[in-house]
Amino acid sequence: MNLIARSMVLSVAALCAASAQATGAARLGNAYYEDFFQNGRCNAGTCVYYSSSPTPTDAYLRIRHIGCRLSIGSTISIVGVTIQIRDFAPDSPNSQVLKELSVGIPQPIIAANTSYYPIDSDTLLLAGAGRYVLLDVQTSSTATVPATGCGITGDLVPPQ
To answer: CA 14, CA 107: separation in Å to the nearest integer?
Structure first.
C-alpha cells in the first residue's frame, strides 16, 4: 500500500472513530450521513426524538435507514411511529411538519414487564437542506417511551 493510500485509510478510520463518539450529525463528504438523536421529549402519549442540528445547508439528505430501540411497560403498546421532516427545530413554536412517513412497528419483545420495540427499517425519504428530522412515537396511553440508540443514516445529494 503506497503512502497516499495508507494516509487516506487512516484519515477515514480517524473520522469514523471520532464521529462514533460525537453527538449530533456526522458526514463523510457527500457520500455518507448519520445522525443520532440525542434529544427527546414526551407529552400525553407522544414522544419525539431528534437531533439538535439541522441537515446540512449545502445538500439534500436522502434518508435510507432508521433505527431505534424503544421500551415501555408491557401493558401499554406503541400504536404509531413516523419519521418527520420539519422546517424549524422541534421545540420552536413555528415548527411545522413538511413531510411525514409511517415506520413499521415490529412485534414487541416482552421481558420483565417491559415491551421492547426494535425499530430497524429501510426507507427512502428526501429532506431539504437545513431541515430537522425527528422520530414521532404514539402510545396507547399517556405513558412516556424511553428510547435509546435512535438515529438515521443516508447520503447527501447536491442540489441541482
So the answer is: 38
Residues of the chain with pLDDT under 50: 1-21
12 belongs to a structural domain: no
What lies within 8 Å, CB to CB, of 59 at 6+ separation is 30, 129, 156, 157, 158, 159
Residue 19 lies in a domain: no
Q: pTM score, two decimals?
A: 0.78
CB-based contacts of 13, cutoff 8 Å, min separation 6: none
CA atoms of 159 and 86, how far apart (whole Å): 18
141: domain CATH number? 2.60.120
Nearest residue to 119 (alpha-carbon basis) of 87, 140, 147: 147
